[in-house]
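During the reporting period, we have paired protein sequences with backbone structure tokens. One record among many follows, to show the layout:
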Amino acid sequence: MRKKLEELQNRIGELEKELEYTKNALSKTQIVCFPCIARKHNIQERLFTILDCLPAWIILLEPGGSIRFANQQFRKKFGNNLKNPCYLLIKECNQACSHCPAREVVKQKVPFEIEFQAPDNRTYQLYAYPFTDIDGSNLVLELGIDITEKKLLELENIRNHQLAALGEVAAGIAHEINNPINGIINYAQILLDEDKGLGIVEKIIKEGNRIASIVKNMLFLAKDTKGEKREFFLSDILYDTLELVQSQFQKEGIEVRTNIHDRLSSIWGNQQQIRQVFLNLLTNARDALNERFVGLHPEKWIEIAAQPCTNNGQPMIKVVFYDQGIGVAEDCLEKIWIPFFTTKPGSKGTGLGLSICSNIMKEHNGQIQFESVYKKFTKVSLYFPADIKV
């Protein structure tokens, strides 16, 4: 009995030593952990301060649109009631957006980018990224940047370039109008002198309609539509733009070849901006041909083709401008999209044409591809989404 009691006392003593050791270890751990916790808290506070100072709004979203976090810029812009879903705060809609960036990110598992206009008419570039929270849940990180001023500057550049292009084709248009006017005067004189019949009247009407068409296209080019979009046919815009430059091309010995599909589907966009793209590319081709070939030459021609096609199953319309002009040197190909960069001699080019074309194509969810070999050819391919509102 005494032996068992001694064993029990010894065991109690061992347990007391273990308890003391554990207490000391715990005390040391607390001494180490408390500064770590404080440091972690300071890092979090610093991170939140940085996020609040950014000139962009940032939110963490659940796939359904609930907001887990929003920085100060977002709360300042859209309010502090983060219990409301993102589409109610941002778009003032009662249901999720039809092209929801968060849903696309969760579905595709890749970053997503979109441009949209808020109810107050401010324009935002939105970037959405997959994000895994510390609890393992799949969220979406959205970054919104206000690009309203940038868009206004782009529109102003487009407008200035339109006016410059209008001035460039004005001489050719004046010549084009002068011919039918002289025809009308002559036909009217014949009617007055000889009282001829219906044939001459028909010619007068034809020449009058020709003048009206040229003036209409010129006025359309000069018109400021401020980004208005509607449904139209690309083939109509192509033919109208060709009519504007036809006289100048003929005068300079440039042949225009067309291969335009007669049943192209309609597109949704800004007619004036698309006309500007076509006019820019035609002007570039004209300058390139004149630089390579002085006067008449059998290779002094430009071909415009427009055909339906598909891209990843999506119906598209492909428009190609091909010329055998001076082309672009290889070391300049990467610079052609940079604003104010030009390969044209002297003060002939502004360096804005291709940059504006690229921006307009992006605005229409389209693509522009540029191929060129110096002193051989230039090929510009445009891809437009068919039957889709952008």
Summary: The mean pLDDT is 79. The chain has nine helices and twelve strands.
